[in-house]
Write a structure and sequence with these properties.
By secondary structure, the chain is mostly helical. The chain contains 20 helices and seven strands. The strands form two sheets. It has a five-stranded parallel beta sheet with strand order 3-2-1-4-5, with helices on both faces. Strands 6-7 form a two-stranded antiparallel ribbon. Helix 8 packs parallel to helix 10, helix 12 packs across helix 13 and helix 13 crosses helix 17. The longest helix has 25 residues. The structure holds flavin-adenine dinucleotide, ligand DLZ and iron/sulfur cluster. Flavin-adenine dinucleotide (FAD) binds next to helix 9, helix 11, helix 13 and helix 15.
Length: about 500
């Protein structure tokens, strides 16, 4: 007979996690479980599964060293029931206790599974975030529009990051205006720090290869950080070598440079190896030391204490139906080229190939290439969301769903975005080098070689005229469309339809 079971999930690998607080090392048992259900409720990228399992094993080892009793289920244990709830019940029987403490999971699916579990469950808030649920609700209360910018200012005031008294450092809250430079010719950052797999990681890689080897994506080479020490080194490396130009080239894309000046710290933040305040303090310190400009520091800190906190607030504020909303009634099936089949669109092909290789693509690739295409083509947002949840190492539903369903697909009816993030090929051409060498020609609007983004952009605006023509921020786009002569408009729409039909038939487009 023991005291209580303390559940720690694969994205709760922080030593100060709420469920561990006031726990009794002599009486309580920590339960950690590698289970098939978490690896396959969507077909997660093998690198993502390996990251989570390797980090879980190392975290469990640290807990044991610190004197905790850990009941750890490995994926191929014969007794393993392969679900979190099943493992909890098995451990409850084994240790003869019905008392369980958990930190609230980051996904409604798993929250429901714990609530339905016939144990006496104490669910604690996950307080590894800057804003509590109560603070977000207090901010949201009575507002007509929940815009990130205002929430972000609250977070600046709360944390004191980049503040001079009650004023923003440098006099401006937001330096986004300076952060839209097109892709540079040369990138003088070699990318994120990479780690050679040790024995623990190698064992996990073999397990993942055997169990999930058929999932989309390359397992090897695997070089993610899998413990707190490594994640901290990866952060320090980015702050020292990449951060200074993060702001300038935040929105740029290059076919043969997958990272530009991005940090690749989201997987570590999201599974608990890094803490958001520790990340932001490191960035603020670099600015205070004069090593990086304000537009870099502010731009980065805004992503973490602004966007990251805001999307989490939205997910829990909006509730369990959020991930399946379809405000624009988009029903088209996700084409096979999202899973690696051939496409002649170089931008999409490169972004998907990189995703398969790394389980990573940066924000603008996700938003303005794959996301933009999915929205323009009218793909079903639930299928799109499932794809994003599966393929990125940093994807957990609390952060993935608002970014995909809300920000990228406008399927939440405009809770997050005030207008849809759509663009023709011109934006992609301005911000990247994808168009050079593409089968299609970005300057061609209709006819032979016309860029599909050009055709689908007008198709999107035309089919959603009722929804968007009164949106003040989209008036110019509709005026341009309306100024085209009837024949040109008819040609654009017919060619867009023909493209979508060919795509629907599974032809290479
Ligand atoms: P950087 O560009 O170096 O940014 C620094 C940090 O800011 C990131 O590590 C991340 O923690 C945070 N951040 C930046 N933007 C966002 C954002 N919009 N929401 C939340 N945090 C943000 N991020 C995820 O963590 N998980 C996801 O599943 C995810 N899905 C996305 C889907 C779409 C369609 C889009 C447009 C964005 C998505 N993002 C997601 C946000 C963003 O793309 C990633 O956080 C970022 O690419 C991670 O790489 P990085 O660490 O190199 O980020
Ligand atoms: C993502 C993931 C995977 C692949 N595997 C496990 C696992 O075996 N055991 C576990 O506890 N957690 C895993 N996770 C993380 C969970 O899916 C995550 O806790 C929920 O999605 C809530 O965010
Ligand atoms: Fe993408 Fe069009 Fe450019 Fe080709 S021409 S890379 S399809 S934007």
């Amino acid at each position: 007979m023991v005291g209580r079971l303390i559940l720690i999930l694969g994205d709760q690998l922080s030593e100060d996690i709420a469920a561990l607080r006031e726990a009794d090392k002599d009486a309580d048992v920590i339960v950690m479980a590698e289970v098939g259900e978490e690896g396959s409720y969507v077909p997660h990228h093998p690198k993502k599964i390996a990251l989570v399992l390797a980090a879980m094993r190392k975290f469990a080892a640290r807990l044991r060293e610190a004197g905790w009793q850990v009941a750890y289920s490995e994926l191929d244990d014969t007794e393993n029931t392969q679900s979190i709830a099943g493992e909890l019940l098995r451990r409850a029987d084994q240790f003869e206790t019905a008392q369980m403490v958990a930190t609230r999971p980051g996904e409604f699916r798993l929250i429901a599974a714990l609530e339905d579990c016939p144990l006496d469950v104490e669910m604690r808030e996950d307080d590894r975030f800057i804003a509590s649920h109560a603070e977000f609700e207090a901010w949201a209360e009575g507002r007509k529009a929940l815009r990130m910018e205002y929430f972000y200012r609250e977070m600046r005031r709360k944390t004191g990051l980049l503040m001079e008294g009650d004023q923003p450092a440098g006099g401006k809250w937001n330096y986004d205006h300076d952060n839209r430079k097109p892709a540079p010719d040369e990138v003088d950052f070699s990318g994120p720090m990479q780690f050679t797999p040790d024995a623990v990681v190698e064992e996990v890689l073999e397990l993942v290869e055997a169990r999930f080897g058929t999932h989309f994506g390359d397992l090897r080479p695997f070089w993610f950080a899998t413990d707190q020490g490594q994640a901290r080194r990866a952060l320090a490396h980015f702050v020292r070598h990449g951060l200074a130009r993060f702001g300038d080239y935040q929105d740029a894309m290059l076919a043969d440079n997958q990272f530009l000046y991005h940090a690749l710290v989201s997987p570590y933040l999201n599974i608990g190896l890094l803490d958001p305040m520790e990340v932001c303090r490191a960035v603020e310190d670099a600015w205070k030391a004069g090593d990086v400009p304000i537009n870099a520091a502010e731009g980065f800190i805004r992503q973490v204490i602004g966007w990251r906190e805001y999307v989490r607030g939205i997910y829990f504020h909006e509730g369990p139906d959020y991930a399946t909303r379809n405000g624009l009634n988009h029903q088209r099936k996700l084409p096979d080229f999202f899973w690696g089949a051939e496409t002649r669109m170089r931008c999409v092909s490169k972004a998907v190939a990189q995703t398969g290789e790394l389980a990573y693509a940066h924000h603008i690739q996700r938003l303005m290439v794959t996301g933009n295409f999915a929205l323009l083509a009218g793909l079903n947002p639930a299928e799109v969301s499932e794809w994003y949840l599966a393929v990125y190492a940093d994807a957990f539903e609390w952060v993935e769903a608002p970014n995909v369903v809300g920000m990228s697909q406008f399927a939440d009816g405009g809770v997050i975005a005030s207008k849809p993030y759509v663009s023709s090929g011109a934006y992609i051409n301005r911000m990247s080098d994808y168009c050079k060498g593409c089968h299609y020609r970005v300057s061609v609007k209709t006819g032979e070689g016309a860029c599909p983004f050009n055709l689908l952009y007008w198709h999107f605006l035309d089919r959603h005229r009722d929804r968007f023509s009164n949106n003040a921020r989209m008036g110019n786009m509709y005026r341009t469309w309306d100024r085209m002569d009837d024949e040109k408009r008819a040609t654009v729409l017919a060619e867009a339809e023909a493209f979508l039909e060919r795509m629907g038939r599974g032809e290479t487009v």
